[in-house]
Amino acid sequence: MRVGLFLLVLLPAAAYGFGIDVEVGRHQGAALLRGAAADPAGGSPGRLVEVRVLPPGVVAAGYQVVDERWAPAGPDDGVAVGRAGGLGGTGLGGRGQAAGDLVYVGSGALLGYNLLVVAAEAVRAGEDGPEVLESMRLRVECVPGAAGLEVGRRGAVTDEPSLDGSAVDCVIVTSDDLAPEFERLAAWHDLLGVRTVVRTVAWIESRYPGSDAPERIRNFLRDAYRQWGTVYALLGGDPGVVPIRSLQYDWLWAYTAETSDEIPVDCYYSNLDGTWNADGDARFGEAGSGGQDDGIDAYADMLVGRAPVGRLEDARAFVDKTILYTRGGKPGDWYDRAVFMAQIVFALPEFDGAEFAEQILEEFPADYEKIRLYQKYESYDGAIPETLENCLAYMNQGAGIVSHIGHGDFFRLNLGDEMMWRWQVDSLSNDSTFFFMYMMNCASANPDVESIAKNFIRNPAGGAVALIGNQVFAAPRNGLALEQSFFEMLFGSDNVTLGV
């Protein structure tokens, strides 16, 4: 009797190509990314987004639209025919536009997970008017590719990142002079269950290779990510304390006379795949053709923030405010109060900051107290004039969230026909009711200068405990999509919090 021998070989998914069937559409439960793709004269149909987890070492190589179904937009869809343009544009899809022009497919590593992202325009311009995407089926081809950084977590903290020690949730990078204050913050994190260590720039530079200080710091963070399983990083100081990486782009306007076409970016420390200089030239972070592409996947591996302090007293104020805020601060209903300051950005109806604010406030809980300070206040029930006096008064009253929508620069915020300057921010006295601030304006959070954002953070007797703002330019429609999605995520999930 002859016995047949069957050999079963199990290969990892990254060793061969395969296909994934993905369906997006308004009835498939895909997430809706609103704002950037919508016609400002109509509603905000935006894009439908589907996210899948891929095996390590696999990338999306291409896709084919297998089937698509569109339906005429109904009265409840809130859309209007806009300018032609696919995912790279700012309007609705053009009439007769092929499905491929309305779809984005990409992949990358995000916080240790390898993700496939499929996005499709929710609306296109049909022959007889706007059409809404009911469903679209795609076949995504996946092939072996560069794997993201592997994460290891183990059980006491080692001096240098190692799998032999315990996990470290957060690292703080600062100077020898500021380290004592940030050690207080690390001890507070430990009490909250977030294992935190402080390492100085000098310590890192003595141990890690690199062409300059930013590259050496990034190599340390890569090591912490892989060996300690670190999720958060706080850069404890201004760029003069913890250096920042500036990217050069020929197509940008110069934002100062001295530094033309540069963007200072801390996402260099957040996106840890590759080197950000794959072509080996003197320019980091290039994206383009002709060999000038540094291979950035634009997905965060580590969540990075910066404490914009340079002096010991500023670091002390930052740490004191953070600890007081996380302890609960002053009792009261100020936590559930939002103050929105909105200017007419451009003399077009779709660029009224008040309209942006109204769309963003739709994401807030119904029981939130909403203070509307609008330049065009007459057009909105309950709104009051956006004067400097009113804005300072409501910030001093205490608020959980403050938002500014309008023009700005390094040293001031535009408030209708008035300005708020750095020294006026220093006068804020909302002690124990520090707010989180979101600024949709140009350059007010630039880290390379003494920008007004730093005054909000450094004020020991008032201002903000944390802040999101633009370092250089702000595009209104893109800014709307980002801020609206931010607050939708914050209030739409029980598992999302601000900060560590």
What is the average of the pLDDT values? 82
Instruction: Count up the helices.
Output: 9
Cα-atom radius of gyration: 24 Å
| Topology, number of strands | 22
Question: What features would you describe in this structure?
Answer:
19% of the residues lie in helices and 27% in strands. It has 9 helices and 22 strands. The strands form 6 sheets. Strands 17-16-15-18-21-22 form a 6-stranded parallel β-sheet, sandwiched between helices. Strands 1, 4, 7 and 8 form a 4-stranded antiparallel β-sheet that branches. α1 links the parallel β9 and β10. The longest helix is centred in the last third of the chain and has 17 residues, at 476-492. The model is unreliable at 1-15, 35-44, 81-99 and 251-260 (pLDDT under 50).
Blueprint of the fold:
Layout: E1 18-24, E2 31-33, E3 47-54, E4 58-72, E5 103-110, E6 113-121, E7 123-126, E8 129-144, E9 170-174, H1 179-191, E10 196-200, H2 201-205, H3 213-228, E11 232-236, E12 245-248, E13 262-265, E14 303-307, H4 312-327, E15 337-342, H5 353-361, E16 369-374, E17 384-385, H6 388-397, E18 401-405, E19 412-415, E20 418-421, H7 422-425, E21 435-440, H8 452-458, E22 464-468, H9 476-492
Parallel strand pairs: 9-10, 9-11, 11-14, 15-16, 15-18, 16-17, 18-21, 21-22
Antiparallel strand pairs: 1-8, 2-3, 3-6, 4-8, 5-6, 7-8, 12-13, 19-20
Helix pairs in contact: 1-4, 5-9
In short:
The protein is α/β, with parallel strands linked by helices and 500 residues long. The chain has helices spanning 179-191, 201-205, 213-228, 312-327, 353-361, 388-397, 422-425, 452-458, 476-492, and strands at 18-24, 31-33, 47-54, 58-72, 103-110, 113-121, 123-126, 129-144, 170-174, 196-200, 232-236, 245-248, 262-265, 303-307, 337-342, 369-374, 384-385, 401-405, 412-415, 418-421, 435-440, 464-468.
